[in-house]
Amino acid sequence: MDTYKKIYLLIALLASSFCLGSAGDIVHHDDVAPKRPGCENNFVLVKVPTWINGVEDIEYVGVGARFGLTLESKEKHANLFILALADPPDCCSKPKNKLSGEIILAHRGNCSFTTKANVAEDAGASAILIINNRTELFKMVCEVNETDVKIGIASVMLPQDAGASLEKYLTSSSSVKVQLYSPRRPVVDVAEVFLWLMAVGTILCASYWSAWSAREAAIEQDKLLKDGLDELIHMDGVRSSGIVNINTTSAILFVVIASCFLVMLYKLMSYWFIEVLVVLFCVGGVEGLQTCLAALLSCFRWFQPAGESFVKVPFFGAVSYLTLAVSPFCIAFAVVWAVFRSISFAWIGQDILGIALIITVLQIVRVPNLKVGTILLSCAFLYDIFWVFVSKWLFKESVMIVVARGDKSGEDGIPMLLKIPRMFDPWGGYSIIGFGDIILPGLLVAFSLRYDWLAKKNLRAGYFLWAMTAYGLGLLVTYVALNMMDGHGQPALLYIVPFTLGTFLTLGKQRGDLKALWTMGEPERPCRHIQFQPSGS
């Protein structure tokens, strides 16, 4: 295999290691801080819009406490309150200033959170904002030995920088008013519908391209059988050089290599490491985009001569003139995306490059039979569950979710994801799906269509329609689970693999094709008996 092809497949392997469906967390469950009467609220994010001297200013985000009054979910029902600075600042004793329904701003420390809330409530405050001593948010819980936890006001933690800004305005005698409310996510966001269509459409396109290539190669092989064995052997070498068939060993190794790569990302997550991933993603995206564009343009007769004419390029091998022609555009597209990837609509470029990469991978990499597909998806199923759920016990947090979000990197997540901004979500953010959730089940779906075409099965009698439908349903269940879990990241393969693989295995057994699918993969095609005339001496 060409060196550049090996590099491309390495990038594809790294891309496939991210298997996650997510919409961002709004409710933060915590089993370490158990619930008890009076201390049983969920940890919810809270919006804190501010008005300085009557002019609307910055909106901050805090987190609600385990105790106290629950907040309104709609902005129109949330009252506007005057903000007052606690005196003493820690609010551990009765404030010196008189309160009559204001929200009090206090510093963390010197006493428990419930003590601060009780003091603020007794003083007449309507709520308490507690400034953390760090820039991140902190979950406020009840102490084990505390009994006075029946608190009738809301308590919200603010990050240090937000609290410092509000404190600065108050000390400068500015009038500060705030609202407190915690909006809920919509049950279904349009972004999830579009993301579902993108994932299903990507596999659909890749499967038809892969099946068409396999059928063309089979027809060409049949024609060559008439012309002589030497030419056939020569053509088999050429035809197979661009395709990589996964075997059982590589299917198992995928989980090991992907796990090592994921842990490396988790441990080395930083700005510079994300930059390396961006470069790798751009390399894979450029190759995928130019492959897809060249194949698409070759369908038009004006471009066919350029697509069928090749030139040998050092390191890359034989490259068509059409591919060389579209390469500058693809490189420029990837570079522009990389430079401006922080702008609001950069997700469009990321999705275009990602879809092109996925389609090309599904064209190059193939599952030869159902046995390999079963092993690959079963390993991926366990891999996804382990790194999303089980890793919390070993690393105190979900490794897959941390890596996907790009925590500690200063970036908005890794690039190996398809993402769409949540359009009707008051919290904003993105709905995302990992490349692995498309590539890995897509390998099996593409195999089903290749089998159907080579076996000359119609759509209903074949396996592709059922495999494609099963994938779509599995992904749909993933989004249902995602919304039921309040936006917590879900291992999509937990739902997709049983649907897709289970449907394939069940149908194969019912139709009596399971043995052929399991071992040979492709249906037996009749071979013509060729007789060679001895050459004259």
TrEMBL record:
Signal sequence region: 1-23
User: Where in this chain does the record put each PA domain?
Assistant: 88-166
For this record, the Gene Ontology CC terms, alphabetical, are: cytoplasmic side of endoplasmic reticulum membrane; endosome membrane; Golgi-associated vesicle membrane; lumenal side of endoplasmic reticulum membrane; lysosomal membrane
Q: Write out the entry's keywords from A to Z.
A: Endosome, Glycoprotein, Hydrolase, Membrane, Protease, Signal, Transmembrane, Transmembrane helix
Pfam families for this protein:
PA, Peptidase_A22B
Name the InterPro entries on file. Answer: PA_dom_sf, PA_domain, Peptidase_A22B_SPP, Preselin/SPP
A GO biological process this protein is involved in? membrane protein proteolysis
Q: What membrane topology does this protein have?
A: Multi-pass membrane protein
**UniProt KW Transmembrane helix keyword:** yes
Q: According to its UniProt record, where is this protein located?
A: Endosome membrane
Example of a GO MF term: aspartic endopeptidase activity, intramembrane cleaving
Task: Give me the segments passing through the membrane.
Answer: 193-211, 243-266, 272-303, 315-339, 345-365, 372-390, 427-449, 461-482, 488-507
Keyword Transport annotated? no
Task: Explain the purpose of this protein.
Answer: Intramembrane-cleaving aspartic protease (I-CLiP) that cleaves type II membrane signal peptides in the hydrophobic plane of the membrane.
As for family, the record states: Belongs to the peptidase A22B family.
Can you say what this protein is called?
Answer: PA domain-containing protein
Organism, scientific name: Populus deltoides
